[in-house]
Structures are given as C-alpha cells and as structure tokens.
Amino acid sequence: MMGKKVILDVDTGVDDALGILLAVRSGAFEVLAITTVNGNVSMRQATDNTCKLLQLLEAEEAIPVYQGADRPLMRESYFEHRVHGKDGIGGALADMPLHKAASDGFAADVIIEQAKRYPGEVTLIMTAPLTNLALALRTAPELTQLVKEVIVMGGVVGSYGNVTPTAEYNIYVDPEAAKIVFHAGFPSLTLVGLDVTRKALLTKERMDTLGDTPIGRYVRESTADYMQRYYERNGVYACVLHDLLAVGVAIRSDIVTTKHYYVDVETRSELCDGQTVCDFQNRLSKQPNIRVCTDVDTDAFLDLFVRTLQT
Ligand code: BDR
Ligand code: CA
Fold first, then answer.
1. Which of 15, 192, 237, 261 shows its CA 20 to 30 Å from the CA of 201?
2. Residue 118: left (phi > 0), alpha (psi -120 to 50), or beta?
3. Whose CA is nearest to atom 2 of ligand 1?
4. What CATH number corresponds to the domain at position 163?
5. pTM
6. What is the extent of the structural domain holding 31?
C-alpha cells in the first residue's frame, strides 16, 4: 500500500537532511517530489545536498528534486553557515560525487501540478522559508482547496526567537512569503514552531544507538558542529530536531498537541520583523487560521526517529 502523498520543501540544512532521512526511511509516504529553496544555504547548495542525501538513501531514481526560489520575495538572503556549516550539512557528504542532478521544472510549478494531479491528497511539509509556496499561491490561489494539508516548521508563539530576539529563522528570512501562506486560507495549516521543536532534543547517547551503519555515521558526522553550536548558544549539548518534527507530525499527528489560533507575521518592524504573533485571547476577533503546536510527546517522537533509522 502506498503511503501519504507528500512534497517536502527544504533548504537542506543539517536538520532538513535528517527530516529527509526520516521521511524516506519511514515508509509512511509516497514522496512525490522534494523542492528546494534559498535559506540556510543557497538554493543551489541546498539542491546538491538534497540530491546527495537521496544518493545516500539509494532513492535518487525514485524521488525527483526540483529547484525553487533562489532568494526571498523582497529581501536579501540570510544564510546560516555558522549553524549548519559551510556546505549546510556539516561537510558530511563532501566527498560524495553527485550522480543525479535536479530534474527540470520549477518548485512552485511542481507544487501546483502535483496538487492538481492528486486533488485533496497531497501534504506539503515545509521546512524552510516559505518562498516557494507563496509563489505557487500567487500563480494558483486555488491551491488552498487542492492540497490536503500544510505542515510548516517555523515560527514561535510563546517564547523567544532563534535568529532575532523575537523571530524564528524560516519566518524571518521571508516574512512576506509567510504572511501570504498564513492568510491564504488553507483549511489545514499546522505550525510546528520552536515552542515544540526546542523540546525535540536528541542526546549523543541516543544518537549512538543508530549504530555503525552508513546512515548512523552520516547522522553523527553531519551533526557534530551543529550540536556544538547549540551548546554554545543554549548550554545544552544535543541535536535539536526542528525540521524532523514537522516530518514526525506528518507521520503521526498524535505526537503533538495543537490549538487553533489566529496567527500573523510582523513585516514592518525594525526590531520584530519575522515575529509570529499569535492572538491567544482572540483580541482581534479574527477567525483562527493556524493549528499551532503547543506541546509534543518528546519520547514518542525520538523513539520514532531512532527506530526508523535503525531499520
Ligand atoms: C529552522 O531554521 C533552519 O536553520 C533549520 O533548518 C530549521 O528549518 C529552525 O528555526
Ligand atoms: Ca530548514
């Protein structure tokens, strides 16, 4: 039996890469495509990383990769080399030759095509700035009624940011795109923000249970500096699994608790651009537009990740 039809939109990045591993290895999905975008690294680097990851998984023939936006809608790029390393995946696949490059086609068009081909069936798992989806919505606003659901790793509603004091990275990089997506009218839009992803911490001990396999070695190598950076900033030595949690939610929605709120994005503030503002008390009297993740069953999620990659 085929799994849930999904498209992953990524800026591969250490945690995007682990999300791809989880998505492909879980067997829970039929991955229709992986689309890439400017974010942690350039769109082209993210594309190469993604193609190499698929080679590592021996899935490069089964899953097509498409390139998307190489810059935010209105702003300059803001790379995260300090967190994700020079190539975005901690140098872990630096020696792997690239055998299969991206397929022809533009990410936003591919999202529209696949949604039209399988109306009501496609789940979009977005783990990067939302530029590609915003572009797709501009061309085809009816997309909101065609996709089954959208799961976004991004934002933070009850805590502090991870790139500015108030903003989470994916929303900060392209807040105009996030605003378009948040207000587009998707019937099911889930926000997997830092409120929950900060609780998804993989310790070194748990990571070591992945064993001495190519995947186990890849995970350890790609995350070594990333964990060190997290320790320097947060005082906790662990691998924070932001993007993987969005994939985890697509596999098992019961690992998170959600609540429906009206959420908007700040785009016109010197200090707070990219902040996701959640109207907890409905002070604006607006209809809720987003299912916000408020809690996570951390153990269930970490077990899912480790067990999936052990097999
Ligand atoms: C998000 O920002 C990126 O650096 C990560 O890949 C993740 O998507 C976390 O804030
Ligand atoms: Ca990402």
1. 261
2. beta
3. 169
4. 3.90.245.10
5. 0.98
6. 4-310
